[in-house]
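Why does residue order matter? Because the sequence determines the fold. Keep that principle in mind as you read this record.
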Amino acid sequence: MKKLSDTYKELGIDFTFPIEIKNAEGNQTYFEDSSGYWWKREYNANGRTTYYEDSDGYWRKRKYNAKGKETYFGDSYDYWRKREYDAKGNQTYFEGSNGSWRKCEYDANGKQTYFEDSYDRREGTPRSQSCEGKVIEVDGKKYKLTEL
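Structure:
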């Protein structure tokens, strides 16, 4: 990326260092100092950083869900991570570029009821093996099961 100071010089615009630019919401989007170091940022509508890049060649990208939870992160070091959440904002899945992952399940109160990960750790009972919430009929009466 071309430095803003170079563009200013080409256009004959006077400036002083540091060069700092903010967007309409007051978030700093560009910085450059007299040594030539610069960085730029992009934001989403909620003011969260979605992209960062600097003069050293480093960059990172982030994505968020509608509730503002980070769903993706990736950077120039080839690291990335993905996250998923349930309707209540509990993290239900994580996966990283190093091969690690974890899955979680929660009850109606947000308490973690099941956990498993890429290191073969498991705690609790997954919903697929639980009878929680299932309805059975005994002698013509229906009962909803609750796990103890």
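Residues 1-56 form one domain.
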